[in-house]
Every structure is written in C-alpha cells, then in structure tokens.
Amino acid sequence: MTESAGTPADPDRSAADQGGHNDKSQDSDESQGEGRSRGDGRSQDGPEGEGRPEEPLGSDVHAKRRHRWLRWAALATSLFVLVAAGGGWWLYRKLDGNIRTDTSAAAELRVYEKERPVSVVHDAENILLIGSDSRTGDNRKYGRSYGSSQRSDTTILLHLAADRKSATAMSIPRDLMAEIPSCHQADGKPTRKQFAQFNWAFQFGGTACTIRTVERMTGIRIDHHMVVDFNGFKDMVDAVHGVEICLKEPIDDSDAHLKLRAGRQKLDGEEALGYVRARKSIGNGSDTDRMERQQRFLGALVNKMQSNGVLLNPTRLYPVLDAATKSLTTDPGLDSLKDLYELVRGMRNVPTEKVQFLTVPRQPYAADPNRDELIQPEANKLFKRLREDAPVAVVPADELKRKKRGNSDSSDSTSPTPTPTYSGSNAATDLCKR
Question: What pLDDT is attached to residue 98?
Fold first, then answer.
C-alpha cells in the first residue's frame, strides 16, 4: 500500500519526531517560566539570556525601602507638629490662666455708667495702670500691712494714640488732693463723697473707685485697667536680665532693702523694686522725685525690651509674659493672652522716643505742703490734649525752664502754636547720660 494523508505515520519515527518537538517546546516554556518566576530581576527570552534588557539588581527592594523611609518621615513630621502644637497650646493656656479678672470693678462701673465720660477719639485707648501697695503674702517684707485693705502705690494713665505712633504715660501723685466720689466698699457699704488724697480712693473702693476718681478729675474715659503687684515688677525685670542705671551717689536704704554703689550698674528685680520705691535715701526725699525716678526706670525697661528684640523673640518673650501675667489683675476686656498680645503688638512699633513719661502738673497743696494740688489751667490743658488724642512733648525739667525763659523773651506772635511741652522723659533716654 502506498502512504496517504490519512495513513498513520511510522510509530517509531513519529514518536521520535514528536518527542523532539515536544521537548523543545517544553524546554522553551520552562525556560520562559523560570525567567518570569525568578526574583533576581532577570528575564530570559532566548538562548544566553538574549531579549529584554536586564533591570538593576535589587531595584524593587530599594524602592520598598525608600517608600518605607518616606512613610516614617511623614509620620515623624506629623508627630513633631502635633507635639509642637500641643506644647504651644499648653503654654498659651498656662499664660492665659495666670491672668486674674476683676469682675467686681466692671460691675461697679456699670452702675455709674451714665456719669462716666464718653470716648472722644475712635481707636485711641486709655489704660489705667495701678501698682498695688498690698503688704500681704510675699509683699509683707516691704512694710507694715494695712489690714484687709490696700493702697495704690503708683497710678499711671497710659494713653495710646489711635495711630499707635506714640504712647504717653501720665503719673498721678498718690498724695494729690482730689474729689473722691461715693464708692462701695468690699462689704457693700457706701463711702461718703470727700476731698482727700488720691490714693485713698483705692483703699475706699478699690479699682472702680480709683477709675471714677480719675475720670472725674480728667474727663478722660478709662477703657481698661491693670493692677500690678510688687513681685510682678521684680519678675519682669529679672525676665529681661536686669536694667542698667547710673547713680551719682551710693544708696543704703534699709526700708527699701537697697544697698548700691555709685556709678553705672545693672539692677536685678529685687534691687529695681527698691530703687523705684525708695524715697528718703535718694534725691530730695519727695514723692515727686520718686515718680520721676519711676518714669525713667520704666522707660529704660521698655527700651531694654525693644532693643533686645524681646517682643519679637518667643524664647525671650515667654519669661516676660509669664512674669507679667502672674502679677496682673485686669478688666474683662484684657483678661486673656490674646487681648494682651493685641495690645503689645500695637505698641511694639512705637519708637522709644515716642514713649513719653510725665506727671500731671501739680504743686504743694496750700493747706498742707505735704500734699499736692493741680496747677490750673495747665492740668486741664494736658487732660484735653490726651482726651482728644492731640500730641504732647516732654523734655527734662531744666531744659523746659530754659525754653520758658526763651519764650518769655520772644515777642513774635506770628509763629505757629507749638506742641505743648511738659517736664518729663522718654524711653530712649539713657539714664547714664543724664
């Protein structure tokens, strides 16, 4: 028989042929499978590894490590932000919680709202700063206690201009004779209206009575108030690492706990407090001399804070804020760190030469030379300038006397009206160059 298309092939030959074909195909498939299944990153598409180019050894491992590192970095950054935010929030709450709120004064002032003056200039602010003369607690060593009452050792009316380009601090002598209205005492009993020395208002009716007395005297609406105790002042001076002064003569005052050599020196908080409170051992022993010394020292403190960048450096600002807030009692409008920050931020761009200190024009009281009385009409002119946010200028007392003599000798009536000038100083004044 002849072979045909349908005739089966020779079993031996066919098996050999088919086996050879199947073996090659299987080898090829297995070879491809091995190339796909290997974890070494190489691919074999033909003999001797010919085909697609080889990938770098370990690229998948490196990619996985890189992604893992990025995840850890992102996690660490997130944790750092959370910790920083938590720490910042804790510091904020701590400082905010230091401040005490005087709600009783606010309530008392609301009762007498109709008799209080109205604000004349929008955005200008008038803040009454009261230095408490309490001798209880940590302040006991500074003198005898007045029992449950306290007196205002220092009172300053701080006027912030509406454009925040100047600030004027006017001291009110504690021995100034003033009309003190009827006020409510701590037990609710009213006091009688009387003409007495100014710091009695704080003793009779606290902050509210002092504010009403100042408003009646000046016609200036008090927007906010702060009461600062002795220790707060000390801690603020220590927080800026002391303030430099110069003394012409040494001081040895046991009442003020103060002993200083003559010359240039830096005072710490304890020494600074004794320096601004001492009376008998420095100068002429008068309250007038003491107020001028307080003003110059406060100016030096402001200058130190601005020149050292304290207001712009959080690490330096925090100790100052901590010291200040621990000693502060304020009205509800200034009883938060946010409110105080806005106040400080508004002042930080005021040039130091525009932070001015002066004392209300006064003279010895005719009936008692140990007390003061206002000099009129000079005092009312000053009050009007501050009330209307008009500029005032200050110069040292001896320079003011020379100016007044020069003006009296001049007969030129056509010159423009000059800015009223008062005896005082500014924060740029160097205490060691006076």
Answer: 84
